[in-house]
Amino acid sequence: MYPKISLMGYRLSGSRCLGLCLLLTFFMGCYLAALPIQYENEALPNQVRHRITAKQVLKKRLAVLVPFRDRFEELLEFVPHMYSFLNKQKIPFHIFIVQQKDNNRFNRASLINVGFIYTKKDYDYIAMHDVDLLPMNDNLPYEYPSLGPVHISSPQTHPKYHYDTFIGGILLVKREHYEMVNGMSNNYWGWGLEDDEFYVRLKDANLSVIRPNNITTGTDNTFRHIHDKTYRRRDMRKCFNQREVTRRRDRLTGLHDVAYKLHTTHTVAVDGLNVTVLNVELTCDKSKTPWCQCPDPPKEPVKKS
Ligand SMILES: *[C@@H]1O[C@H](CO)[C@@H](O)[C@H](O)[C@H]1NC(C)=O
Ligand SMILES: *[C@@H]1O[C@H](CO)[C@@H](O)[C@H](O)[C@H]1NC(C)=O
Ligand SMILES: *[C@@H]1O[C@H](CO)[C@@H](O)[C@H](O)[C@H]1NC(C)=O
To answer: How far apart are CA 300 and CA 240, in angstroms?
Structure first.
């Protein structure tokens, strides 16, 4: 084709050649632009085409990540409740119980990192979800958090925590945002502060946390808190230099370096409702976070009767 065009151009005057060339380029461009569309509509087998359109229509999928250890009774209430709650909102979801199986102190943030890695291929967003906090108000929106992380259990409605920057309890984060902030810190062994550190990560990334604004229930009727604090004491010990390190923003650890072994996975049904249990062994580098195991307190002398 090219030689023919140049040959024509050779015989024609300069300005007419330019016009003709532009015209030809234009039509060629149109032809090329039309090609991939033709390919998609005609060359693809029916099945494939159907799958592509179905995927566009499909809603975003939610992975409910529940960091877990030793809370079997709560789990039995949590699973049926969440199924009925999320089905009402027509959210496509699956529940992942991320169970810590090693002998270290509980590390909620690292378990969420592991749950995220396990689910990110198939799910568009996660809910970091306490197992003992059941949403009761149907207006709490578990929809895809496209604009920024959505804090479901806001300080205005959480039964226990009311400070402005609180983002614990239940937080929805889309996959891209979780990756953008390198997930959560792996330094938090024992109870507390990992969510406050995550708040600073979001802030540093200029992600603003959105809270539901149409909730008329309050601290006593938005959630049901099924935590029995006399029966289950929180591990609030602080040992080694834990207090000092965990009060600071962690710019080193996160999603990229969470050290673990996925021991086993199980499908478990509660009242016929499937959840996936991930049994996770977290690895602790004691040279970096020696507080993953606090030394036992001195034993009280045994009283003689
Ligand atoms: C966040 O916003 C501030 C102020 O607009 C800007 O200086 C900073 O570079 C932004 N950070 C990121 C990670 O986008
Ligand atoms: C706000 O809540 C009411 C019920 O309390 C509901 O009817 C209404 O649709 C909600 N509005 C929005 C914008 O979500
Ligand atoms: C639950 O899991 C079992 C085992 O993987 C499977 O056979 C069953 O179809 C699942 N049930 C539902 C409702 O997904």
So the answer is: 22
